[in-house]
Amino acid sequence: MGDNKQVDRMIHATQNKDRRIWKKFGGKNYNIGAIISLIIIALIWFFAAHAVNSPFIFPYLEDVLYQIVYSLTDMYVLENLGITMRRVITGSVYAFVIGFPLGMIMGYSPRLLQWMSPFINSLRQVPIMAWVPLAIVWFGIGDGPTLFLIAFSGVFTIILNTIAGVQDISKDFYNAARSMGAGTLSIIKDIVIPGSLPGVLTGLRLAIGLGWMSVI
What separation in angstroms does the CA of 84 have from each of 4, 77, 91, 150, 211? Predict the structure, then answer.
């Protein structure tokens, strides 16, 4: 009974992945609404900052925009941005290398999904910052802890979205392939991997976003 609950939680997590939910809420005019919202926020920021008239507490919008433009031309900032991007990309690649095959086998095999879901669900509930002390002890000072945290934050997103991508494939494709004598490896190569790509790419995109939030 407990294992079934764990599997249900795993499936529920895959069904709540990012499928442009906010765009569905906003309808066909979502992009226009987003632009209008940004303009309204900018106007509120501009007038509120000048009303407060204390840049230390509430910086002016124009000052923030100027500093953004200045930072994009400062080589020191660009160099550090490049280092951060390298860490995020490297950590995301590690997350993909681990999460993609796990998501594939868990999505393809209900039995493996049932066996592994308690372990996956338990790990992904731990806050990422709780791993910081252990990451420093394990990997020392340097890029090691940062890469670990980036990979750890993204691996579960890739696993869950890969599972969802595999489960979204119609059973008719499996039946048609088996009726023509296709083996397990052929089904995985010609049906599972191509059919799950939308979910895999969604998971990778979200993993990169989570990686940016995990950079410390």
Answer: 41, 10, 11, 11, 10
Cβ-contact 89, 143 below 8 angstroms? no
Angle, CA 19 vertex, CA 16 and CA 22 arms, to 5°: 95
Phi-psi region of 101 (alpha: psi -120 to 50; beta: other; left: phi over 0): alpha
Q: How many angstroms separate the CA atoms of 76 and 79, rounded?
A: 5
What pTM did the predictor assign? 0.71
Helix 143-167 with 193-214: angle, nearest 10 deg = 150
Q: What digits encode the pLDDT tens for the residues 74-127?
A: 888 888 888 888 888 998 999 999 988 888 888 888 888 888 888 888 888 888
Q: What is the pLDDT of residues 131-151, one digit of tens each?
A: 888 888 888 888 888 888 888
Quote the CA–CA distance of 10 and 5 in Å, as a whole number: 9
